[in-house]
Amino acid sequence: MFRYFKMFLAVAASFSVAACSIENLENGSSLPESNNAMKILNTPEESVPNSLLLYLDDAKISDEAYAAELLSKTGGLELDPVFPGADSDENERKYGLHRWYELTLAEGVDLQKAATILADEAAVTRVQYNKVMEVASDVNVFGAEPAPQTTGVFNDPLLPDQWHYINDGKVVGDAVAGADINVKDAWKLTAGDSRVIVAVIDEGVDFEHPDLKDNMWVNEAEKNGKTGVDDDGNGYIDDIHGYDFYSDTVLFNNPKAPYSGHGTHVAGTVAAVNNNGIGVCGVAGGSGKGDGVRIMSCQAFKNDAGASSVHTAKAIRYAAKMGATILQCSFGNTASYDSDKMFREELTAEYEALRYFRETANSPEVIDGGVIIFAAGNNSQSSSSYPGAYNDIISVTAFGPDYRAAYYTNYGPGCNIAAPGGELTIGGSVNNKSGVLSTVPVNVNESGYGYLQGTSMACPHVSGIAALGLSYLYKLGKKMTVDEFQALMLTSVNDIDQFHIGQKNTQVGTSFGMMALEPYRKQLGTGAIDTWRFLMSLEGTPCHLVEVGKEQNSDLSAYLGDGAYNMVILDVEMSEADQAALGLEKKPEVRFGKLIINPTKAGSAKVIIKAIAGGNQVGGDKVVGGQEITREISLVARPVAAANGGWL
Amino acid sequence: MARLLYRLFIAAVAAALMSSCNSDQKILEQNVNEIAGIWHYAGNEAGQPVDVYLGFYPENNRFDLYQKVGEGAYKHYTGTFSMSLSKVLGGKYDSGFAWAREYTVSRSGNILKLSAGDYSFEYTYAEVIPEEVTGHSVPTRSDDMLPIL
Questions:
Q1: E-assigned strands of A427-536?
Q2: What is the fold, at CATH topology level, of the domain defined by A138-534?
Q3: What is the rounded distance in angstroms from the CA atom of residue A378 to the CA atom of residue A398?
Q4: SS3 content of chain B, % helix, strand, coil (to 5)
Q5: If you measure CA to CA, which chain B residue comes closest to A592?
Q6: Which of A90, A135, A202, A484 has the fewest CB atoms within 10 Å, measured from its CB?
Q7: Would you call A536 and B46 a contact, using CB atoms and an 8 Å cutoff?
């Protein structure tokens, strides 16, 4: 239906453009007057030069005559639904996805004028420039040679070089043992679950890579269907492992294609196949028994070319519709936004697609929606890039094997948590091995493996850990809300601020130099993510012991993370009944990660702590900031309890 | 002569002291050995199930504490302990926090009783800390860092 519609419009447009006066749409001619400028959501800088997004009135959806009229008026060539098939999906209609169209303009047509003309249309509710995003890593791959096995876990020969999983402090001179994601013991509890699907919105993933192919998501209807046919009727032909939204074609695996390796590298960190005797490990790559989480490749980028709003929005919607629960996004907008409101209003199509993903429960047995994870960005700037900075999206900053901020990482408001992103220049010289080691296509490096650095590389560690978390929930038979899940993840951290004193020798600008570390303190999110602590927190929240008859400052780092002393507390709630149960004269407080309480009676009570995960203020419609999280802790007041909640 | 008597006196006092030291040392060792090993307590506290494993290691005066009150994983504490001649046991967590109390120790067979005033608990000797405990535990902070303002 839509493909026919597209062809019809293209033909109609060619007549219209020829027949109508389009000189005032060409570059350099005067702008037509518009009384509807407010409908234009954003500005044309860094956008696709011949593309606009429209939000049509419901009554005009699929109105071919009106579509032809729009093409005629603007010099458009094609008008395509951004989300094909959304019109017939009640859930997608709820998010207005069926109303978004992409208008492709003829060469030479002035984008701004076309936008203004469209804004004057009564049936066009919004017009959005098709912004371009960038990947968040330095794509500069260095090959890897297998090292002797010494880790004592999986048999993948390159695992000892993956310091970001198990850091023994020897990878470079400045390395710190334990500056990793603490996953080794976590793998004994779970290494993945094939029911968990992680959508990698990136460059295409090399789905035939020997260390990835067994963990690729498979669309059985397309795999078992006919080549060249949309067997499952989802609007995409032969989308067996995902789809190429950049080129609107089937994902292809051509080793000679000009891939940068970014998507394949990211996918390997999430779920390269573990314990298969080759290559590297992935965070949630399974135990070698087919139990790795599944990677869905949603290609929105192509080599160095940035993805547009349309590419990413389509990819995100596809991920939600086809069953993904985790959205792995190592990219961001180059433009800066002052608040969530500004982002939402300027990039509404992406926002709606993200909202649709977030609220779609594809793993309903364990979580009530989707988890979205973005890279914070590689511009060394003092705030996260969007969409990662958006309030309930997790934005990931990067540290090197020295447990210190990598020179490139964004930091500050909007950043939620830190993970290993690698840093090739620690100590003032280039050492490839201090990058993140993962899979790459063989055309990028003939070994099929390579080192990269970036918040792009930090981000999939968190996505992999989120995937492990969902896998563990399946094992435990537990279900959570997305908010609960994210709150536990963001408080399962090790303190990283203690390392941000003085300077470090690394890349500064374009040369080596000393980088001051103090600006990063309290700015990298809640701390460095810890897989083991996260899985343990999913098992449940143990009670905290406090002592009767004594005013005390009781340490809550076991619940709020090791960086709790730096966490901003918004509120501490305890019901009056619970206060009475402990004989409290006043409500407890939390300062510097310590619960200030003076129980006069033995008993139990619940305390609800609202805090900010990352930064000093909650992000939202006024400012860029951290996520508000809630932790509920059960207290047991007894005659004996140490100040750290210890039994003795 | 007086000098000789003085020297003999000093030697006798030293011998007595040494003997006393040796004897104190022996008592201390006995006291510490009394608590050496793994001890388990399971019970209930304010309506919440409690499961505690204590490990005392005399060779380096260190202890392990695994505790779970309510649901979830065990919290794992480590630190050092000391024992007095009068069987009073005290300790300090690696986080820098002192134990809430000092405890009077008494042992009867496989039962170890730790008492602090009116408050006492009986622990049963265990061979090892089970793997389902150690393998489902979260380490607590190993040092008490000061807030960086």
A1: 436-439, 449-453, 493-494, 503-508, 511-516, 528-529
A2: Rossmann fold (3.40.50)
A3: 9
A4: 25, 45, 30
A5: B147
A6: A90
A7: no
Burial of residue A320 (number of CB atoms within 10 Å: 0-12, 13-18, 19+): buried
Phi and psi at residue A72, to the nearest 5°: -65, -45
Angle at which helix A111-119 crosses helix A64-74, to 10 degrees, equals 140
ipTM > 0.95 (yes/no): no
Q: How many residues does chain A have?
A: 648
Give me the residue spans of the domains in chain A: 2-130, 138-534, 542-638
pLDDT digits (tens, 9 = 90+) for B24-67: 888 888 889 899 999 999 999 888 999 999 999 999 999 999 99
CATH topology of domain A542-638: Immunoglobulin-like (2.60.40)
- The pair phi, psi for residue A426, each rounded to 5°, is -60, 135
Q: What is the pLDDT of residue A30?
A: 42
Contacts of A551 (CB under 8 A, 6+ apart): A596, A597, A598
Strand partners, B52: B41, B67
Contact present, A333 and A386 (Cβ < 8 Å) = yes
Can you give the pTM of this predicted structure? 0.87
For residue A327, the one-letter residue type is L
Provide CATH code, domain A2-130: 3.30.70.80
Residue B24, SS3 per DSSP: helix
* Nearest chain A Cα distance for residue B2, angstroms: 56
Provide CATH code, domain B32-139.
2.40.128.370
DSSP for A153-192, please give it: S---TTGGG-TTTS--S-SSTT--TT-S---TTHHHH-S-
Which residue among A521, A562, A637 sits closest to B148, beta carbon to beta carbon? A521
Residue of B nearest to A492 (CA): B138
Q: Which two tokens stand for residue A366?
A: 């364990």
What confidence score (pLDDT) does residue A9 get? 34
Residue B145 binned pLDDT confidence (cut-offs 50, 70, 90): very low
User: Both tokens of residue A25?
Assistant: 């749409």
Q: Is A377 exposed, middle or buried (0-12, 13-18, 19+ CB in 10 A)?
A: buried
Taking the Cβ of residue B134 and every Cβ of chain A, the question of whether any pair is shorter than 8 Å is answered with no
| CA closest to A186 among chain B residues | B135
The tens digit of pLDDT for each residue in B64-101 reads 999 999 999 999 999 999 999 999 999 999 988 899 99
